[in-house]
Amino acid sequence: MSRSALVTGGSRGIGLAIARELQRGGDAVAVTYRSGEPPEGLLGVHCDITDSAQVDAAFKQVEEEHGPVEVLVANAGITKDQLLALMSEDDFTSVLDTNLTGSFRVAKRAVRGMMRKRSGRIVLVSSVVGLLGSGGQANYAASKAGLVGFARSLARELGSRNITVNVVAPGFIETDMTAALPEERQAEIKKNVPLGRYGSVDEIAKAVGFLASDSAAYITGAVIPVDGGLGMGH
């Protein structure tokens, strides 16, 4: 049966690949976006996840079109990289407000319908940086590490309602952001990855699709690294 799925930050990159993967599996997929045009063939809902009122309005739109959200992928995120000594308080709090508190907002809204139905899938998109740390990214790393504790707490809260909550932690992925890095920096990054290459957005999407599927019904509170071995042991 087709499920109602929502991917935040799903208009491009990893989020769009996840949305397309869920759509290929037969789900009715909606994506949130903040600017530009929504992707073709998906239900686009304009939403800034730092605004609870916008989150509620987005969910109401999805519920009217597709029914209550049964699969939530919290993917939306931002970076504001800076060395700690130079990082402003706004640089720190705004990244946490989007990446961590934004995931709280959408998860809280999604579980209403999931608890009533006594089933659901929540997947949070973290990062290898949240496990390894990264100089100049204390704000981003803190926000992505926080998702792990958040997910595992929810897994314990919601397990009795047949709702699973898991985390996917991507490593360095082929995106516009990584493509813009100087070649020397790209080579340096790949040298630290045991598989010697960047991952693809589709490889992240496949992992999310698995966690959202019936095949992963007995997996909850897990952190699945998709990072070429970069963060192994964490």
TrEMBL record:
Q: Which reaction does it catalyse?
A: a (3R)-hydroxyacyl-[ACP] + NADP(+) = a 3-oxoacyl-[ACP] + NADPH + H(+)
Q: What is its EC number?
A: 1.1.1.100
Query: What does the subunit comment say?
Result: Homotetramer.
> Could you confirm whether the keyword Lipid metabolism appears in this record?
yes
Keyword annotations of the record: Fatty acid biosynthesis, Fatty acid metabolism, Lipid biosynthesis, Lipid metabolism, NADP, Oxidoreductase
Role: Catalyzes the NADPH-dependent reduction of beta-ketoacyl-ACP substrates to beta-hydroxyacyl-ACP products, the first reductive step in the elongation cycle of fatty acid biosynthesis.
Active-site residue numbers: Y140 (proton acceptor)
* Signal sequence, start to end: none
Which species is this UniProt entry from? Marinitenerispora sediminis
Residues that bind NADP(+): G9, G10, S11, R12, N75, Y140, A141, A142, S143, K144, I173
Any single GO molecular-function term of the entry would be:
3-oxoacyl-[acyl-carrier-protein] reductase (NADPH) activity
Boundaries of every Ketoreductase domain copy: 3-176
Q: Give the protein name, as stated in the record.
A: 3-oxoacyl-[acyl-carrier-protein] reductase
The family line of this record is: Belongs to the short-chain dehydrogenases/reductases (SDR) family.
Instruction: Name one process (GO BP) from the record.
Output: fatty acid elongation
List the NCBIfam families. 3oxo_ACP_reduc, PRK12826.1-2
Pathway given in the UniProt record = Lipid metabolism; fatty acid biosynthesis
